[in-house]
Amino acid sequence: MKKSIILSLLSLLGTAFAEQITILGINDMHANVDSIPQLTTCVQQERAKSPQLLLLSAGDNRTGNPYVDCGDHPGAAMIQLMNHIGFDLSTLGNHEFDGGAAAMAYCINTADFEFVSANVFPTDKLGVDLKPYKIFERNGVRIGVLGLLQVDASGRPDAHPDQCKGFSFIHPLELAPHYRYLRSQCDILILLTHIGFENDVKLAQIFPEADAIIGGHSHTRVENGHMENGVLVTQTQNKLKYITRLTFDVEDGKVLSKKAELLPLKEYEADAKTSAMVEQLKNQPFFKRSLTTVKRDITRRESMGCMMADAIRNCVKTDIAIVNMGNVRLDSFAAGQLTVADVYSLDPFGNDTIRMTVTGAELIRVLENITQNDDHGAPCVSGMCYKAVWPAGADRMRVTSASLADGTPINPEGRYTLAINSYLCATTENMPADPGVSAQTDGASCMLKYLETKDEIDYEGVSRVEATKE
Fold it and tell me: 304 lies in a domain?
């Protein structure tokens, strides 16, 4: 009897020494400042329950909101809001490169938190302060966080090559195993990644030493986590729709249990102080100017892209214009006023517009090859239409027919003027013989000029591409 009581007391004592660690993870916020007040409230409530929690971002904090992306210091306004909320750490996303090294360095130096990315190597002259990992201590528990960024077949992240100058990269799945030694230095090991859900699963298979992966890039909604090879893989879709709460029970340096819960941020009330900060940020008359009226809801992303392509072709005065689907950053648009802010939300990149002369055969090849690196879908066009198929297992589509807007078939030997952005010129294989010249304008500027001349636009249902899967 006495022995049983002693064992029970020892068991209770053991339980008393267990610590519960809370980590909040979010990814691909893309400067959705309108939801930042709800995020603030959520974090405040979670901190009230767990004062020692960690708040981590898996990258792509910026790009998607003109109030954040434009100006003298692109991205910095989002960093200020993250400082206000109290982020503890972020990794780099590919869109952290959108403003170039100077903008990245400014944001990192402005942040009250650090950035970690083990497979990104800036030169000293860029002023970009990156560490591969950081180890925190919370209530005596050591928490290691290793950062990793996606790298595509070109050896770079998905960003304009010019913005990646001065950096070198190693593929994250190649580099990650070299950091297995972190397991012995911490009680909880987190991989904070921006490599996409499929690659996170592969990472878990080769890095079982990790306890969890807080991921991003693919905008995947992972409900309550995915367990892979003993590693808890999480991701919260994008644009502050959700945040993941991870909880770990740790005793004697070992994780006894772990779980993830997806919290919908729309269910939280907006924090008043943060709302005031957001309103002050958005109080810029330049962005509020109305350009035109959208007659009907535009419900398709391709239709938005067709409008963008029309604007570029009209501005640069070419036969044809191409806009890659990855350049179209709004999926839809409601009927009503379309403002300058909406234009920069639709195209936040500022890529130069290039004017070139191509043969019909070169034009078709460009359309096909764009899809090798842009996995968002078939390119949008103006001045033409085309049909294409996606062969099973192929890395690009195949155009089966193409014609000008008036129905005249594209002549492989014919010559056409083409407007296309500089990002595509730099990342698309086997571009036309004519390298083209800069039109000294970008996509957003073209849209401003095009739309302000129209009292009303109606792009609902506009489609110039018929793409099917084989």
Answer: yes
Cα separation, 136 vs 468, in Å, equals 50
d(CA 196, CA 199): 5
Q: Residue-wise pLDDT tens for the chain (470 aa)?
A: 455 554 454 444 444 468 999 999 999 999 999 999 999 999 999 999 999 999 999 999 999 999 999 988 999 999 999 999 999 999 999 999 999 999 999 999 999 999 999 999 999 889 999 999 999 999 999 999 999 999 998 899 999 999 999 999 999 999 999 999 999 999 999 999 999 999 999 999 999 999 999 999 999 999 999 999 999 999 999 999 999 999 999 999 999 999 999 999 999 999 999 999 999 999 999 999 999 999 999 999 999 999 999 999 999 999 999 999 999 999 999 999 999 999 999 999 999 999 999 999 999 999 999 998 888 899 999 999 999 999 988 889 999 999 999 999 999 999 999 999 999 999 999 999 999 999 999 999 999 999 999 999 999 999 999 999 88
| CATH assignment of the domain containing 226 | 3.60.21.10
Residue 1 placed within a domain: no
Return d(Cα 402, Cα 366) in angstroms, integer: 13
Q: Are strands 120-122 and 114-116 parallel, antiparallel or unpaired?
A: unpaired
Residue 447 and residue 366 share a domain: yes
CATH number of the CATH domain containing 350: 3.90.780.10
**Under 8 Å between Cβ of 114 and 89:** yes
Predicted structure pTM score: 0.87
The terminus-to-terminus CA distance of the chain in angstroms comes to 73
Domain count, the chain: 2
- Which residue, of 256, 280, 304, is where some domain finishes? 280
Q: Cβ(391)–Cβ(398) under 8 Å? A: yes
How many CA atoms, within 13 angstroms, populate the side-chain half-sphere of residue 265? 28
**Residue of 207, 156, 165, 206 lying closest to 182 (CA atoms):** 207
Task: Show Cβ contacts of residue 358 under 8 Å, excluding neighbours closer than 6 positions.
Answer: 366, 415, 416, 417, 418, 432, 434
